[in-house]
Amino acid sequence: MPGGGDGRSFFSLQCPGFVKPFSATWLLEFDQFSFEPFSMNKDWVLTKEAFDALLAWLDPEREEAGRKYEQIRERLIKIFTCRGCFEPEDMADETINRVSKRLNEIQSTYEGDPARYFYGVASKVLMEYQRPKPTPAPPPIREDTDRLERDYACLEECVEKLTPSNRELVMQYYQEEKRAKIEHRKELAEQFGIALNALRIRAHRIRTALQQCVEGCVREETI
Amino acid sequence: MQLESKDQETLRQYLLGNLPPEERASLEERLLTDDEFYQELLIVEDELVDQYLSGDQSKAERESFEAHFLLAPERQQKVRFSRTLKKYLHHAEQTAANANVVARVAAAEPVPVPAADRGSVRMPFFSFLKSNPVLAYSLAAAVVLVIGLVSRTALRNPVSQGPSQVLAVALTPGLTRDSGEVTKISIPPGTDTLQLKLQLPQADYTSYRARLVAADQSELWSAEDLKPVFSNDTRFIEANIPSHVVKPGDYEIKVAGRLSSGQFEDAQRFTFRVNR
């Protein structure tokens, strides 16, 4: 349930860590909630009306608008991450809030892909971020033996959940080392009857799904 | 839109924090509007992590990777996951290779152990073992037994080369201390040289470098310009190590292949334990 009137941001209340504030499911169920406004800063509040207007600007179809919103937010987070920002989610949300705030002024005159406008605003947010705050040093990657063992056990489980075809693909795709890998992947693409780039994409998707599965499995075991 | 290799290199430099600001803005705008390009970024990200873990980056790239790329906690998670995946695949590969060894030994082929026929043989064996864990363990135990017999035979009949005494032992990749299946070598008194026959993957290297490191990773011996030799379709190199270098303990041999550019890249690792 969104909301919170204690002055803290909605995101920090509901979505610590890596959880997105608006999941696709949450978007679809958005109308079922009695909406309470939240704010990213003291100056402006994103209301349900403002958010609806933002979605309508992205696409007339609400479901498609939700998809585009998710896509823009994910990519903004990635860009802020690539720029070395330590709070990329907060910065993406701040960007979205600023676009929402100015929507009335721009939507009648702005032409082109709305994503470009988001990028313009993100650039300004980035400039402000880079001036006052130095980026904290990254925490070192800890080699926790227990955690490594849990990860490994979870990976074994997750690999078993793959379809035989996907399991074979990922096992073979990542097997060979270095130079041999290039030739091996060409052969593998032929074996699967797809182009080499299509093979890369498919392997990436399976790998991403595996990583999500492992992280979910480790979280469950930790709880 | 078909992405070009130039795009991949540009994305790579962007992820490492090395892209000039004037190129960065147009790239980021494209990331927001071009689905295929954004997907490519995610793939290049994975590839960078793999190359980092394989030690397949230049010194400068590695520094950028650690100083810039690894800043984000989500990327540290990515590295952790990739390390686990690499370990898993390594074990899977070795299980399959060991099964292949047993099959070849059963067919009365001599040591050194033949290399797996990558691509065609490995996966059927692996799939077979995944569905038969009991058999997989039995095969692994058989491999240990075979290697033990090889070591004993070598111990009793050291190969003589002129006046010096040479103990020859074939090492296969994949037997690790982690798995408890490390190859044990007993060096009899009077042995001058420990000759390790190191089985290698098929690859186009002009020559190899071998480094012997102790459990604390200190380097004890190394040799360069080792030429591969072939026996029964198996490629291997011989590492002739003075026996006084190896005391009782655990060791690792790191083999790197020389590329036509003159640079080396990791090719294979072997572990063994020396008893006296």
Task: Describe the model.
The complex is a heterodimer of chains A (223) and B (276). Chain A contains 10 helices and 2 strands. Chain A has helices spanning 10-14, 24-28, 48-58, 62-82, 88-106, 114-130, 145-161, 164-173, 178-192, 196-222; strands spanning 38-39, 45-46. In chain A, strand 1 (38-39) and strand 2 (45-46) form a beta hairpin. In chain A, helix 3 packs across helix 4 (62-82), helix 4 packs across helix 5 (88-106) and helix 7 (145-161) packs across helix 10 (196-222). Chain B is built from 7 helices and 10 strands. A 5-stranded mixed β-sheet of chain B has the order 1-2-4-8-7. Chain B has a 5-stranded mixed β-sheet with strand order 3-10-9-5-6, with helices on one face. In chain B, helix 1 (5-15) packs across helix 3, helix 5 packs across helix 6 and helix 5 (73-106) crosses helix 7 (133-156). Chain B is elongated, with a radius of gyration of 22 Å. Mean pLDDT of chain B is 75; it is low at 105-128 and 146-163. At the A-B interface, helix 4, helix 6, helix 7, helix 8 and helix 9 of A face helix 2, helix 3, helix 5, helix 6 and strand 10 of B.
The run of helices and strands of chain A is: HHEEHHHHHHHH
Task: Name the helicity range of chain B.
Answer: 40-55%
Structural class of chain A: mainly alpha
Looking across the biggest beta sheet of chain B, what order are the strands in? 1-2-4-8-7
The major beta sheet of chain B can be summarized as:
5 strands, mixed
**Cα end-to-end separation of chain B:** 64 Å
Q: Name the quaternary structure.
A: heterodimer
User: Level of helix content of chain A?
Assistant: 55-70%
Average pLDDT level of chain A:
77
Task: State the largest interface.
Answer: A-B, 50 and 54 residues
Provide the residue-averaged pLDDT of chain B: 75
Q: Which regions of chain B have little confidence, pLDDT < 50, spanning 5+ residues?
A: 105-128, 146-163
